[in-house]
Amino acid sequence: MFQLIWNGLFVGSFYALVAIGYSMVYGIIKLLNFAHGDIYMLGAFLSFVVLGGMTGILGIGNLPILLLVLLIAMLLTGGLGVLIERVAYRPLRGSPRLSVLITAVGVSFTLEYAVRQIWGPNPKVFPIRLSGDPIEILGARITVPQIVLMAVAGLLMWILQRYIMHTREGRAMRAIALDQKASLLMGVNVNKVISRTFFIGSALAGAAGVMAAAYYGSIDFLMGFVIGLKAFTAAVIGGIGNLYGAMLGGLVLGLLESFGTNFFGGEWRDVFAFGFLILFLTFRPTGILGERVVERV
Amino acid sequence: MAKDAVRLPAPKPFIERPPQLSGLLAPGTFMKVVGAVLFIAAAVLPFITATPYIISILTSAFIYIVLAMGLNVVVGYAGLLDLGYIAFMAVGAYTSGILTTTFGLSMLETLPFVVIACIIAGVIIGGPTLRLRSDYLAIVTLGFGEIIRITANNLKITGGPSGVHGIPTWSFFGWSFSDGLNLFGIHFNSKVLFYYFVLFVGIGLAVVAVSRLGRGKMGRAWKSVRDDEDVSEAMGINGYTTKLMAYIIGAVWGGFAGTLMAGHLSAISPNSFLFLYSALVLMAVVLGGMGSTPGVIIGALFVSLAPEFLREFSEWRFLLFGVLLVVAMIFRPKGIWPANAVLPFLKKREIPQIPPTAAVSVVGVLDDGTEDDDGDAWVDADADAGADAGKEGKR
């Protein structure tokens, strides 16, 4: 029982990390960034390359090196997120939502199959596999890497929360989320802030990708697709556009999946998650923490 | 004395417009003729070359057209982004596949069940989510596509990962396509017969019905909801039922295409219904031109035939498709052949320059007695203002 809860929270913290990016971008420019899950996948692949180079030089791979790689991968994926926004989304700002959504699907496709062309369609084995001796806590088997990864995820989320709620740039983000035009009139550099949002969101997704790769030990070019869907589900459950909602939604989804897998079997896990999403939207479309959206004409 | 009242004549237009084109060059007639010529060309093709390869890829391409026409109702007319459209094809294909192989029904008899199954699927997925705005719908349909695929992969009745095999081709009251047909001394084998069936019944029905639906009352309601949902609700259109209707019709169309596909390939498996294929159909609609019948046909032919022509590039095609989607949206957001496309030869019709109106010089005498030498300046200013206003509105 406690094992189930622990597994759920562990998986949920990954979901939350990816869901935050979804929620941030949606909150600010009302765009569902379909490519977000693929940034997660790219994070895993970039860290795969960086780690390959590093273990070549240093000859050994361990947890501190992984954390260094995590930072590098975050910077790279963040930069990539900014680039994508610049190339694909910025020219379409102000065009119908449908066009932007289709562009996002196109970007997602491009990333997936570019990775497939570079690294091939078969799964790759990640050079570092984190596995430690399990500790028994309340009858659950918990490994040290799990605790470290969860701590990293929690730390990243805490930094982000401080950043958005207590800095000038964070305030600009919140202002744009409320009213883009008005904040432009008040002297906020909207383009810059949106770029920054993409950077942060993508960096977090990249971090989640690296951590998942190190934990599960294998990466492939389609790994971002399902996680993108799950993260969106998490964001919706928590109330999309709401930062705390994304975190909460990730944990809730992780727990749900963990229990669902236990009751229905692993092959029905994704069906359970998406079915829950549809059911949830029927009854509470704004999510747990989301407020009612009033459409203004 | 209403009878004796002076009837004011309508003001004459400032400029004489060129007469409407008539005859063969009128846009409507021209498109119909082009369509008919292509249709006849497709119909006589098996007499010219009937290699199984060509017949087979063309049949697939035609089924893609049927599928894309269905998605065109959802995406093009009603403006609902459906990223799991292939799921409806899966529902149709599996329904007919299972009913024919395990229950021994003929393909024709499975059609009512396919329609019912697709309506149910459409209501299940559209019912709860169409009350929300389009973003949710996009990702929920994506999830729905995955649900259908995983379910088909895990159930026993759908054959699990290996799918359903040995699906018979279409048969009508005891006579099946596999019997072949001798007509005027020419033997038609089952593949050619199926090709004709898809061409006449599938495409004929899909193209005519969907383009007529789009022009009817329901179609106009769809388009108004697509353009502005709030305003169309204010005009008395029920946005929810209108969208649900589009969704259900699209679903039934997808199911029909799935039934055709099951008959064509005689085997289906969950791997035929990956997200990839949903994206490809979407690609056909978007690249061709959302809401435009000729555009969607072009798009569907491109998506289904391009990999055959570019065999050595087939590894690259999904990457290429992704880039094309982005580029198309940035540079040609309405597609190759948009719904309001102007035929190339009509672009040559020039509308003569509007001469400055005579009235201007009459009011152009200023108060201090000097003549306003730039009499039509205010016209220009007005025009500029108008253009600016237009830009504002677009933004």
UniProtKB/TrEMBL annotation, chain A:
Top-rank taxon: Bacteria
Pfam families with a match to the protein in the record: BPD_transp_2
InterPro entries attached to this UniProt entry: ABC_transp_permease, BCAA_transport_permease
UniProtKB keywords: Amino-acid transport, Cell inner membrane, Cell membrane, Membrane, Transmembrane, Transmembrane helix, Transport
Keyword Cell cycle recorded: no
Protein name: Branched-chain amino acid ABC transporter permease
Recorded topology in the membrane: Multi-pass membrane protein
Family to which the UniProt record says this protein belongs: Belongs to the binding-protein-dependent transport system permease family. LivHM subfamily.
Subcellular location, principal: membrane
Transmembrane segments: 6-27, 39-59, 65-84, 96-115, 135-160, 193-215
Organism: Leucobacter denitrificans
Subcellular location: Cell membrane
Molecular function GO terms recorded: L-isoleucine transmembrane transporter activity; L-leucine transmembrane transporter activity; L-phenylalanine transmembrane transporter activity; L-valine transmembrane transporter activity
Any one of the GO BP annotations: D-alanine transmembrane transport
Keyword match Membrane: yes
UniProt GO cellular component terms: plasma membrane
